[in-house]
Amino acid sequence: MKNMGATIRYLISVGIYGTIGFFLHFIDASSEFIVFCRGMIGSLFIGLVMILTKNLPDLKAIRKNLVLIVVSGVALGLNWVFLFAGYNYGIAVTSLCNYIAPIIVVIISTWFLKEKLTKAQTLCVTGAFIGIALLSGVFDKNDAVDYHCILFGLLAAIGFVVLVLCNKKIEGVKPLDKTLAQLFVSAITVLPFVILNNGFPKAIDLKSGLIILCLGVVHTGIAYIFYFNSIDVLPANKVAIFGYLEPVLSVLTGALIFNEGLSIYGVIGAVLILASALINELVSMKTKS
Which of 31, 68, 79, 260 has its CA 20 to 30 A from that of 20? Predict the structure, then answer.
């Protein structure tokens, strides 16, 4: 029960992430520009929250962990950039490759961070990965997989792995301080991609502007506060498995709202992911009792 609050925060953040695809359908702007705005607006929102709550950053703690904070912020920005780049060639395969990241985190955490993983939990992680493979739609296609999807997806996964591992090593930095710094660094990291690709729009309509603001405040500022606050507490296997709920929500949103096809493979994959998450939670609770 000790990690129940962290689990709830993590699930809320995952639920928010799962609706990003819905909002992206209504934005008339480049993906690089949207990513840049997410990081900048998110960091400004967190800064405003800190000012209003008179919760000033602990600059000494930030300086002490500056290298890890900068590296993790860069990793976050690159994860966004490569993920959106891969989406241009194929969302399914890119997502599949990106979601190899939590499995890598579990393996590294088990080997180097000495986190114990039971056989049941190992099966759950494996089941979740098989589920994401089914959900991706790869098995529904006869065409060859575009290598861009694999390349960008794996690069995004590497960024996510570095982000999670850096967060585990950062010590003494308050969640708001860390999230503010990482989001700001991520925005600065993405900026060159926007400039090189001429991603700044000459004009932006009101609807797109409001949605981008929502993505920055809700889907980045609030969601990342919950996310980073929870992954510091939760074991790597739980972060891996529950993270797979995000694509399930994305697929359901597409199927129910945008009438995108959900094959039998996708249904089986979604059920397998949810079952793996539930079984992992039950196993964790039984182990602690």
Answer: 68
